Amino acid sequence: MAPSASLPLMAVDIGNSRIKLGLFDKPVDEGGLPMPSRWLGLDTDEWDPVEIAVWLAPFTPPDLDWRIASVHRPAAARLKKWLDQEHASSAQLSHQELPLVIDLPAPQEVGIDRLLGAVAANALRGTNQGAVVVDVGSAITVDLVSTVGTFCGGAILPGVGMSARALHDFTDLLPEVKLSGLAEPPPVLGTCTQEAIASGLFWGAVGAMRTLVEGLASEIEGDPLVLLTGGAAEQIARLLPGEVRYVPHLVLTGIALSAMGE
User: Fold this and answer.
1) Residue 260: what pLDDT?
2) Structural contact between residues 251 and 177, judged by C-beta atoms closer than 8 angstroms
3) Do 58 and 112 belong to one domain?
4) Cα–Cα distance, 146 to 127 (Å, whole number)
5) Domain range for residue 47?
6) Are residues 232 and 213 in the same domain?
């Protein structure tokens, strides 16, 4: 079913580990950013449509305009099938629907979440100011938006959870260390194997992000706005150089901005 701009917006960000849904049903103040009035996080592999239906109340799926951004094709197909069964208005976004200039030879190959982060960055950066967008998820992406708002590309590296699993899976004795729930960064000095792994994974990722932020910033004039989003982003934000802002719903905001720009 074709999307309908007359319905409240349900933005859906389908990642490799998590699905994030955000309901945009309130007007945006002049000069403000659209932000979800409520949001829901689900496991990409194990979500149940009943969970979404219960959370939606008093709305039902047909009451909303569903805009889907996905980097996980099976989960997106399953969600689309359910929405079609519910006779809901839905559309899956591609780079062609975004209010964004993409200066790359193959824009269709770029993860839609990265592009939507750039859409949101363009609403947050200052005039003639570039931006670096860091998304800390299953993979960590660090991307550059130019001073005129063009998406220029960036870098992708494994997230700390993926790296932790790789250390365990490809060695005989190293345990798998869970880092996703850490409220504070681990000590740099690890005094046992688990602490040493936590230190290496966390501070290695932070060091990579610092280097990439500084390297991408050198590609443009002036100091960019650095935006962080994703699971561990809030605690990492204070560890990076420059003007840094943590935005918890950056991709959902990019979806809402794209829908509003139609």
Assistant:
1) 86
2) no
3) no
4) 11
5) 9-92
6) yes
How far is it between the farthest Cα atoms of the chain? 58
Q: Which CATH number fits the domain that encloses residue 60? A: 3.30.420.40
So which residues are the catalytic ones?
113
Bridging pattern class, strands 225-230 and 131-136? parallel
Residue whose structure tokens are 């943590």: 246
Tell me the CA end-to-end span of the chain in Å, nearest whole number. 17
Residue that is written with structure tokens 């990076």 in the block: 240
Omega into 74 within 30° of 0, i.e. cis?
A: no
**SS3 sequence of 226-258:** EEEEECCHHHHHCCCCCEEEECCCHHHHHHHHH
Q: Is 242 left (phi over 0), alpha (psi -120 to 50) or beta?
A: left
217 and 119 together in one domain: yes
Four-point Cα dihedral 20, 115, 228, 242, nearest 10: -170
Measured CA to CA, the distance from residue 33 to residue 5 in angstroms comes to 18
In a domain, residue 2? The reply is no
Domain boundary among 58, 92, 126: 92
In a domain, 222, yes or no: yes
State pLDDT tens for residues 166-223: 999 999 999 999 875 556 789 999 999 999 999 999 999 999 999 999 999 999 999 9
Q: What is the pLDDT of residues 139-168, one digit of tens each?
A: 999 999 999 999 999 999 999 889 999 999
